[in-house]
Automatic annotation (TrEMBL):
Keyword Transferase: yes
Family as reported in the entry's similarity comment: Belongs to the PlsX family.
Gene: plsX
Organism the protein comes from: Cohnella phaseoli
Reactions catalysed, as given in the entry: a fatty acyl-[ACP] + phosphate = an acyl phosphate + holo-[ACP]
Full protein name: Phosphate acyltransferase
């Protein structure tokens, strides 16, 4: 299998990308990893030699975080992101991973790789850490601000299959993000979606409130991109604020510092359980190829996690299974 890595996208590119590729290449010799980007920028981080299962695909341009997504994809045809997408489209790579501009990656998926037959609106999925350590797949996280009930149904089908194929969950529990657990709660879209999900070939467990999403009550949470993006950033912001508050309190006095020293191993374990590096790699589901979004601030460890999840998805034929599901085969 071949995975194209956008070596120029992200806060720590290309160093984090190259370091992760070298580590992944050593651990998984069955994967050929292609670093897409400026060879002169990539080579200094490769060391004395390139492993047999690593190569470079030249790309002379970079899509920046401030670039307008659609315009950048159309005008920067030789950017690392677009070249990686073209490799997937042409069958020269089984998947691509990028930590670059999220909007541009979605545009690359739609305009370069192409939408999967039968899918009306692709959705961006993300894994949240949960208290039961199983994680939660949430979609859509921002690919589409507005959604119809039929789109939420498709997200449920794709999300359920992803958790089954990539994470090995035999019967993923699917929940619908809502303002209450009762079936009659919500707006017109969620009420109509509830009825569709009740009759869908998924293990639907009903409405789930935002305060419960990290409790492990479901394996997949479905929502429109507007609500999903707010949920994602609210959870990230709350986690950062809690850790900041703890740090301030535990260093406020001598006694607090002594207590903090004793509790340091416990705090480290909590931080590890909530670390996005352990869950990095958000697939854009509904694209006719495997397109994966890494966190913009991904370090080498986080990038390796994304490569691992992508490798698993390819091995378990995720895209082929989704294509069969939505083409009616």
């Amino acid at each position: 299998m071949r995975i194209a890595i956008d070596a120029m996208g992200g806060d720590h590119a290309p160093q984090a990308q190259v370091e992760s590729v070298l580590a992944a290449a050593a651990e998984w010799p069955d994967v050929h990893l292609v670093l897409v980007g400026d060879p002169d920028a990539i080579r200094p981080y490769l060391g004395s030699g390139i492993p047999d299962n690593v190569s470079i695909e030249p790309a002379s341009e970079v899509i920046g975080s401030d670039d307008e997504p659609v315009r950048a994809v159309r005008r920067k045809a030789d950017s690392s992101m677009v070249v990686a997408g073209r490799m997937v489209k042409e069958g020269r790579a089984d998947a691509m991973i990028s930590c670059g501009n999220t909007g541009a990656l979605m545009a690359t998926g739609l305009l370069v790789v192409g939408r999967m037959q039968g899918i009306e609106r692709p959705g961006l999925a993300a894994i949240f850490p949960t208290l039961d350590n199983k994680g939660l797949l949430a979609l859509d996280m921002g690919a589409n601000m507005d959604a119809k009930p039929e789109h939420l149904l498709q997200y449920a089908l794709m999300g359920s299959m992803y958790r089954s194929k990539v994470h090995g969950i035999a019967k993923p529990r699917v929940g619908l993000l809502n303002v209450g657990t009762e079936a009659a709660k919500g707006n017109e879209v969620t009420k109509a979606a509830y009825a569709l999900l009740e009759n869908a070939p998924v293990h639907f467990v009903g409405n789930v409130e935002a305060r419960d999403v990290l409790e492990g009550v479901c394996d997949v949470i479905i929502c429109d991109g507007f609500s999903g993006n707010i949920l994602l950033k609210a959870i990230e912001g709350a986690a950062q604020s809690i850790f900041k508050l703890l740090r301030e309190e535990l260093t406020s006095s001598f006694v607090s510092k002594l207590a903090a020293g004793a509790l340091k191993p416990s705090f480290r374990r909590v931080r590890t359980r909530m670390d996005y590096n352990e869950y990095n790699g958000a697939p854009l589901l509904g694209i006719n190829g495997l397109v994966v979004k890494g966190h913009g601030s991904s370090n080498a460890s986080a990038m390796k996690t994304a490569i691992r999840q992508t490798r698993t998805a390819i091995s378990n034929k995720l895209i082929a299974s989704l294509a069969d599901e939505f083409s009616g085969k």
